[in-house]
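Late entry, evening session. Most of the bench is empty. Finally got around to the prediction I had been postponing all week. Sequence below, unchanged from the version circulated by S.P.
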Amino acid sequence: VVGMPPVSEAAQRFILHWGELARSWGISKTMGQIHALLYITGGEWSAEDIMETLGVSRGNVSMTLRELLNWRLAYRVHRPGERKEF
C-alpha cells in the first residue's frame, strides 16, 4: 500500500478542531491533530503519511507519536515485507 487515501473534508475539519481543543487541554496542537487523524480514520499511518497529510515536520511527528505511544493512545503495527512502522 503506497500512502493513505485522502482525508475527507469533514475529517479535515474534525482534525483541525481537535488540534485547537488540544491546546486548552494543555497538549500541543500537533498532538491533538495526529490523535484525531488516527482516531477518525482508524487506519495504519506511517510517519511519512502523517507528515504529508498534516503538513508537519518529521521531528514533530516523531516526538508526538512517541508521546501518543507512551500514553497508549496509539500503537505500532509491523506489516510483513515492510521496513516502516505504521
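Two things to note before I forget:
The mean pLDDT is 89.
Residues 9-24 form the longest helix (16 residues).
Will write this up properly tomorrow.
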